[in-house]
Write a structure and sequence with these properties.
By secondary structure, the chain is an alpha+beta fold. The protein is built from eight helices and five strands; from the N terminus they run H-H-H-E-E-H-H-H-H-E-E-H-E. The strands form two sheets. Strands 1-2-5 form a three-stranded antiparallel beta sheet. Strands 3-4 form a two-stranded antiparallel sheet. Helix 1 packs parallel to helix 3, helix 2 crosses helix 3 and helix 5 runs antiparallel to helix 8.
């Protein structure tokens, strides 16, 4: 299949990758733009992993107040330089993350932030449920592992499906921006406020 200029342009707009990277990804994907996005993301993940060790001390604090002023969010999103922190792409990412927190109510930023006692409590609840359902001992632990992964998707911001595109997790959205902007990006912390809630 011929790779057209329109295809290259569309893929560049969607991924922020360079012309040659986009062309190679399209050729590798046989002209399938969705497959090419995945190929570029996989390459971006490699770039992002290298950047993950770099210190992110600049950034923004983004505020989101929902219509009716009964729900609000503050989130700190960090990057490496003030230059990137001022870009429209970075600010949009911070806004999207604040919207995610408002809509999906995560309790933690990442899996690593979940206290071990919380995980153990969840495991015990699942174990009791599965025994009550008569599941065989041999499969209970595997089922529990799957349920814990689902639990992470509910309570950890980075593991949640993104509200604007549930095909993508929040951590993948951040990884795409790391690949585009060329800097490590970290969600440092957040607070979600609801009027009347303790």
């Amino acid at each position: 299949m011929d790779i057209t200029i329109e295809m290259i342009k569309e893929l560049r707009e969607r991924t922020g990758a360079g012309v040659m990277e986009v062309k190679k990804a399209l050729e590798e994907a046989g002209g399938d733009i969705e497959k090419a996005v995945i190929i570029l993301r996989e390459k971006g993940v490699v770039k992002a992993a290298k950047k993950a060790s770099r210190v992110a001390k600049e950034g923004v604090i983004e505020a989101y107040v929902h219509t009716g002023e009964k729900l609000g969010v503050l989130v700190e999103v960090n990057c490496e330089t003030d230059f990137v922190a001022r870009t429209d792409e970075f600010k949009k990412l911070a806004k999207d993350i604040a919207l995610q927190i408002a809509g999906m109510n995560p309790l933690y930023v990442s899996k690593e932030d979940v206290p071990p006692e919380v995980i153990e409590r969840e495991r015990e609840i699942y174990r009791t449920q599965l025994k009550n359902e008569g599941k065989p001992e041999a499969v209970i632990e595997k089922i529990i592992d799957g349920k814990i992964e689902k639990f992470y998707e509910e309570v950890c911001l980075l593991e949640q499906p993104f509200v604007r595109n549930p095909e993508v997790k929040v951590k993948d959205l951040i990884t795409e921006e790391i690949a585009k902007l060329g800097e490590n990006i970290v969600v440092r912390r957040f607070s979600r406020f609801v009027v009347g809630e303790e």
